[in-house]
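Protocol step 4 of 6: structure prediction from sequence.
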Amino acid sequence: MLCNLTKQQRDVLVGLVLGDGNLEYDGYRGTRLQVKQSEARKEYVLWLYRYFAHITKTPPKQRNDTRQWYFGTRFYEDLEDIRQLFYRDGEKVVPSSIAELFDSPVTLAVWFMDDGRLDYREKSHYAYHISTDSFSESDVQRLQELLLKRFGIAAKTYLSLCRGKYYAKLYIGKEGRDAFSETVAPYLLNCFAYKAPPQSQYILTPQRLHAEHPSIIEG
């Protein structure tokens, strides 16, 4: 069975796969997307659901124990095609075709809402970090190159030590932070306002997103 995603839905899906989204294979032919977020990000889960409602059996629900909000799609063969691009031997990878898949600022914004953070010190400094712990250093460098070529965003790859192991992460400092802000700010939801510097004046509600970017929702 095929779900035949639109370009806009695929853009969101790629951002999720780079971030917190999980593609689960059923062991036979199909794969489903699973989304889980904290209670504070309910707005985000509902926003994502609008993209995938047509391939989801039930609307988002909240767990009684963790208070997380979640939903999952049905299993589809073309979602398995995407999973095979991003997973190799059980490990998440950045595919060699990433430049063809990652050409929209929506993808970058979704990835940032999932795994990015703001490093802000009033009057002295602000920068962005994107956690890429699931990827190898060479994969992160591939993403770094893509940001520069596709969006004009200068970034750096650095290694962070955690529990005796080094993880590659992306850093976007003064050379790229303004371009990054301009690229992702139009798509940030209110529940992620803390990830934008105080001088940013463009934080979207879902209603404003629908009004100003209706093609994103309607395909």
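Step 5 (inspection) to follow. Residues 210-219 have pLDDT under 50 and may be disordered.
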